[in-house]
Amino acid sequence: MKKVITYGTFDLLHWGHINLLKRARELGDYLIVALSTDEFNRQKNKTSYYTYEQRKMMLEAIRYVDQVIPETCWEQKIYDVQEHNIDIFVMGDDWKGRFDFLKPYCQVIYLPRTVGISTTKIKEDLMVHNG
Predict the structure, then answer these.
(1) Where does the Cytidyltransferase-like domain lie (predicted)?
(2) Residues 6+ apart with CB under 8 A from 116
(3) 102 DSSP 8-state letter
(4) Annotated catalytic sites, by residue?
(5) Separation CA 126–CA 34 (nearest Å)
(6) How many CA atoms lie within 13 A of 55 on its CB side?
(7) Concatenated DSSP letters for 37-57?
(8) Tens digits of residue pLDDT in 13-37
C-alpha cells in the first residue's frame, strides 16, 4: 500500500483544498493529513476561524482523506514519515524546495496550487464585502 502525507491548516475549507486532497490521494492508496493544531498556529502567528477539532471533523468527512493527525511543530515531519511508513510527501508548489530534506526518507512532490482560490483571497473578499 502506497501512503501519502500532506500538511496544512485547512481553515475556511474551499475547493482548492479539496482539489489538493484529491490529487494527493490519487498519488497513493492512503492519505494522511497532518493538521496544524491551534497552539502551533499561534506559534506561526496564524489565527484560524475554526478550531482544530472543527477542522479535523471537516477533513475526516472528505472521502479522499483516510486519517488526520495533529501537526504540533515544524520539526515533526521526518518522524511522521518514518512512523507512518510514508511513501510520498505532498505540498503545494508555493512551498517548492522547502521540504527537500525529506527526500532521503520518501518521494517529495510539490503540486501546483489551484488557480483563482486561496484562504487569503476569501478573507480579503469577505473584508471588502463586509467591511
Answers:
(1) 5-124
(2) none
(3) G
(4) 44, 46
(5) 27
(6) 26
(7) PHHHHHHTT---SS-HHHHHH
(8) 888 899 999 999 999 999 999 999 9
